[in-house]
Model the fold of this input.
Amino acid sequence: MFDWLKQLDRHVPVRYAVWLLCAVGALLCAFTWVGFGVGGAPALAFTLLVGLGVRDTRQTRHSVLRNYPVIGHLRFLLEFIRPEMRQYFIEGDNEAAPFSRQQRSLVYQRAKGEADKRPFGTQMDVGAVGYEWINHSLQPTTLASHDFRITIGAARAQPYSASIFNISAMSFGALSANAILALNAGAKRGNFAHDTGEGSISRYHRENGGDLIWEIGSGYFGCRDDGGAFSEERFAANACQPQVKMIELKLSQGAKPGHGGVLPGPKVTPEIAAARGVPAWIDCVSPASHAAFSTPIEMMQFIDKLRTLSGGKPTGFKLCIGHPWEWFAIAKAMLETGITPDFIVVDGAEGGTGAAPLEFTDHVGAPLQEGLLLVHNTLVGLNLRSKIKIGCAGKVVSAFDIARMLALGADWCNSARGFMFSLGCIQAQSCHTGHCPTGVATQDEQRARALVVPTKAERVYHFHQNTLMALKELVQAAGLADPSQITASHIVRRTAEQSVKLLATLMPFVQPGELLRGEMSQQVFRIYWPQAQASSFGVAAAR
Done:
């Protein structure tokens, strides 16, 4: 409804229109004051506004003010009067607003190092169906540190000690150069990982030296030959860099699983082309499926090849769960080949920070809870869970989000939108247009300059640190010694007005080795496990 700010964002002169009008007003009032002795007060007011605009463009704290001098203060004025007014008037009539407003506020506070304590009790309806909480102990523990870590690929030549909270996959091209610089600088200072996204490793990923998880997508960007096929030589050249800590093969993503994508030629700048290994100014295509393998067995062999070429670095894959028999086919290929990935990242369909068709964002792919639980249960049922770490992503922002995912079987969590918010993203939903008002998701240098790297890198660092500090407090309150001890028995959900249940009783969990024994207590396994075959992603022929 109130979409005027986005329209102002289309052209640089328009973004500065109010500031320029103030300058014109100052000159006109000064002329009437000198010539006719009237207009002194307006001249002073306009001059002050012009000075305010100069200050706005030179300050480094607020990206919005750097891109919208003078008029950008309206956002903060409305927020000061009442926080929800900013959402309604500035960010538009956005369907995502009711869910994300509180999350953004929390991230902003933690990223800026402001107090995240609130008066007057919970702001949620504790009687609403779906409300969840973590049970506390009358004997809380005291933990020495909030630097919670796990070791991925412990049996490999180059295992990685990872934070349990990291930056999820977002490519250079989707994000601006300054955004990548700030994210990686924050990751470097906080000693956590930065996933490159499938756009490969750019010079902006390398500049600050933060730990990288290199995502390999179906376009094989950064490791493709001139014909677009996977190149072992180019892969090894990047993968063996010390800054690259893990290799992640992307099968699908939560935003648009099974879709693929095209970066239009006009957006393929020389810098983006250099990072991806593609020609500049020509459409850059990410196919919907991989060409380097066509069966689950071949996929396991490809993962093993990537691990060998990288010098023994932890190697795994990311997927959003779709057809259950395809995931089961991958699991059967692990058993048949004896090759296991070091980790699996489960991407929920509710996640995704980039643009995607509406039907795909809303109605394709399994949500994180169901996808994560299916992967965890399958590995437990095959006695493979101890060999494979599980990461997850999909609207994970708060410490409670992390705790809940750990309870459902994750070892660590990735966040995309949380770290975008820490950069100053206001969720204007203009990512696909290149007109991001805060310089986060654009390749327009004028807009991107609003994002001041040192300032935003500090906020990335503080968001990570303060979120893990909050997780530490939750773990202590629950009477536990480590986040890995959080189980589904610690999380409670209201299922009706007069009924609550533990996730342990509400969610289906399998027993170790259950699938190997052929017990299959859950219907999804009884129906689809027999249909899966390691030699094909398709359904096995009826026997």
